[in-house]
C-alpha cells in the first residue's frame, strides 16, 4: 500500500452535522457522540410565515447530515428540512443525508379510499427532489415506504434498546407476554417475543372510523402475567389505552407499553394518566421532556443505556 492510499484510509471524514428546529437536543447528542460540533445554521420565519434558512459555514465537498424529526409543527419542520437540504445541495455539498428519526406522514402509506393520496410517497419524492442522497430513519410505520425512494434508505430498529430495557427493568420478564395492539404490529411484537423466548398475544381491534376503536378481542393468554404492549408509535393513545384495559380485565398483573415514537397529541396525556399502565416507555425520536412533566408514566428508555 502506498503512502497516498494510507493517508486516504486514515484521513478523518469531512462530516458536517446540522440540526433542524424539531429536536435540537437529539442533534446535540448525536454530535457529542461523534465528537463533532453542530454546524452553524440560521432559520427564521419571515413576516408572511415563509421559512428562511441560511447555512452558516462552507459545505463544499462535505459529507452533510441534517437531523430533523417529523414531530411538533410537522408541516413547518418538513418544509424547513427540504429547504436545508436544497441549500446544502446548491452550496455543492458532496453528499447529503437526511436523518429523520420519526418519518412524517408515515401512516399515509397506502390508499384507504378511492380518492385518498399516498402522502408518504409524496414526502419521499420531495426529499429526493430537494437533493437528499440518503435517508436514515427509525421504525417506519410500514417498511414498504423504503420502496417509495430511488435513493438509499436505512430503517433503523429500536428493538435492541427495547430488549435491554425489558431485561433491566422487569424482574419477571422471563414469564411475561409480549402483546401487539393490532395485527399490523404483529411482526414487530413476535420478533421481540422470539428474542426473549416468551409468549405472544394479539389484540384484534374493530374500527368503524380511523380515529376510533369500537371493539377489541384478545387472542392469547395474559392471566397472572406481566403484559408488555409493543408498537411503533402512539398518537392520541386511544388504541393502547383500550388495550391496557383489555389486558387488565383479562387477568394481567401489570401492563407496560413500549413504543418507538411517542407522539402523544390531543387527549393522549389525559388518557395515559387514567389508564392502568405501570410505564409507557419511548425512545427519544420525539422530544418528551414537556410531556413527562404532565405524565409520570412516560419513561424514555434511551436513558437506560450505558
UniProtKB/TrEMBL annotation:
Q: Name one GO cellular component term.
A: ribose phosphate diphosphokinase complex
> Which SUPFAM superfamilies does the protein's record reference?
PRTase-like
Q: Matching CDD domains, A to Z?
A: PRTases_typeI (cd06223)
Instruction: Specify the enzyme's EC class, one word.
Output: transferase
Query: In what pathway does it function?
Result: Metabolic intermediate biosynthesis; 5-phospho-alpha-D-ribose 1-diphosphate biosynthesis; 5-phospho-alpha-D-ribose 1-diphosphate from D-ribose 5-phosphate (route I): step 1/1
Q: Which Pfam families match?
A: Pribosyl_synth, Pribosyltran_N
Enzyme Commission number: 2.7.6.1
> Origin, by domain of life?
Eukaryota
Which terms under GO biological process does the entry name? 5-phosphoribose 1-diphosphate biosynthetic process; purine nucleotide biosynthetic process; ribonucleoside monophosphate biosynthetic process
Cofactor(s) required, per the database record: Mg(2+)
Give the UniProt keywords, A-Z: ATP-binding, Kinase, Magnesium, Metal-binding, Nucleotide biosynthesis, Nucleotide-binding, Transferase
Q: Which GO terms describe its molecular function?
A: ATP binding; kinase activity; magnesium ion binding; ribose phosphate diphosphokinase activity
Please state every residue range assigned to the domain named Ribose-phosphate pyrophosphokinase N-terminal.
Answer: 15-131
Known partners and oligomeric status: Homodimer. The active form is probably a hexamer composed of 3 homodimers.
The family this protein is said to belong to: Belongs to the ribose-phosphate pyrophosphokinase family.
What the entry lists under PANTHER family is as follows: RIBOSE-PHOSPHATE DIPHOSPHOKINASE FAMILY MEMBER, RIBOSE-PHOSPHATE PYROPHOSPHOKINASE 1
Q: What does this protein do?
A: Catalyzes the synthesis of phosphoribosylpyrophosphate (PRPP) that is essential for nucleotide synthesis.
In Swiss-Prot or TrEMBL terms, this protein is called: Ribose-phosphate pyrophosphokinase 1
List the taxonomic lineage: Eukaryota, Metazoa, Chordata, Craniata, Vertebrata
Amino acid at each position: 500500500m502506498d503512502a497516498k492510499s494510507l493517508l486516504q484510509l486514515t484521513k478523518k471524514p469531512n462530516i458536517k452535522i446540522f440540526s433542524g428546529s424539531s429536536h435540537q437536543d437529539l442533534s446535540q447528542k448525536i454530535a457529542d457522540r461523534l465528537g463533532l460540533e453542530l454546524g452553524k445554521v440560521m432559520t427564521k420565519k419571515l413576516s408572511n410565515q415563509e421559512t428562511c434558512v441560511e447555512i452558516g459555514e462552507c459545505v463544499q465537498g462535505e459529507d452533510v447530515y441534517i437531523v430533523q424529526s417529523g414531530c411538533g409543527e410537522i408541516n413547518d419542520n418538513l418544509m424547513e428540512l427540504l429547504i436545508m437540504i436544497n441549500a446544502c445541495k446548491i452550496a455543492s455539498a458532496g453528499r447529503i443525508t437526511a436523518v429523520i428519526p420519526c418519518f412524517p406522514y408515515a401512516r399515509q402509506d397506502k390508499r384507504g379510499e378511492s380518492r385518498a393520496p399516498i402522502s408518504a410517497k409524496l414526502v419521499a419524492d420531495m426529499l429526493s427532489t430537494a437533493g437528499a442522497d440518503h435517508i436514515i430513519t427509525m421504525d417506519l410505520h410500514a417498511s414498504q415506504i423504503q420502496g417509495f425512494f430511488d435513493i438509499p434508505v436505512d430503517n433503523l430498529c429500536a428493538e435492541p434498546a427495547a430488549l435491554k430495557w425489558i431485561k433491566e427493568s422487569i424482574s419477571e420478564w422471563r414469564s411475561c407476554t409480549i402483546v401487539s395492539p393490532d395485527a399490523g404490529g404483529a411482526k414487530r411484537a413476535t420478533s421481540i417475543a422470539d428474542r426473549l423466548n416468551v409468549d405472544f398475544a394479539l389484540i384484534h381491534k374493530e374500527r368503524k372510523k380511523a380515529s376510533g376503536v369500537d371493539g377489541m378481542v384478545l387472542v392469547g393468554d395474559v392471566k397472572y402475567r406481566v403484559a408488555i404492549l409493543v408498537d411503533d408509535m402512539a398518537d392520541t393513545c386511544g388504541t393502547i389505552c383500550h388495550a391496557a384495559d383489555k389486558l387488565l380485565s383479562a387477568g394481567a398483573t401489570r401492563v407496560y407499553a413500549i413504543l418507538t415514537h411517542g407522539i402523544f397529541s390531543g387527549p393522549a396525556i389525559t388518557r395515559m394518566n387514567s389508564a392502568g399502565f405501570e410505564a409507557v416507555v419511548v425512545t427519544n425520536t420525539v422530544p418528551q421532556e414537556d410531556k413527562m412533566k404532565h405524565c409520570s408514566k412516560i419513561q424514555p428508555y434511551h436513558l437506560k443505556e450505558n
